Amino acid sequence: MVLVSPPMIMVSFWVSNRDTEITPGTWDNSGQSFTFNNATGSWTLNGGTISGGSLNFADGQMLVFASNNNLLSGVTVNGDLTFNTVSARTKLAGGTTFNTAHLAENSTSLGFAPGETLATTVLFEGAAGGTRAVEMNGTSGTFTVGPTGVIRTAAGLGSNAQIGGSFQFGGAMTLINNGLISSQTSAQSPRIIIILVAASRAG
Length: 203
Known about the structure:
By secondary structure, the protein is mainly β. The protein is built from no helices and 24 strands.
């Protein structure tokens, strides 16, 4: 395992199948574009912060999220975020964007900073039971689902889906829904559980 603790971000790899971990500290990627590929392998964000710039994915490599106090701030993710291990989670701030976030395991969560707007898709998915959550980042505030934003369950979901309330991070949520919140599951359980201070819907 290669541990990456800022400011030393770029390291020399000496094995072909590597496990690189971003530990507590900040990787300042401002103004830069970084691609995860066969040369870099997949990296694990384990209590660290990635700030600014863009992240790209190739060759099936990805950014893996551990069950720790992770943060993406002001990052443009040109691809999907996948949370497929138990309790994988991250906070999002500074207008961080992504294509689709897949909350695919028990106790996975996205924690949005107050004032953030979702313009893409969050999917609650996977057969494992438990709960997946979209919540605040520990600070109470307003979270907006923009006109192109979608939060929905996928067919075959085996868990409850929670929006707002206290799960991994907490903070009272005021939700402005200008987009779509929906369920693709037909059974009474699992459910979408919405725990809010206040909510509004455009139109």
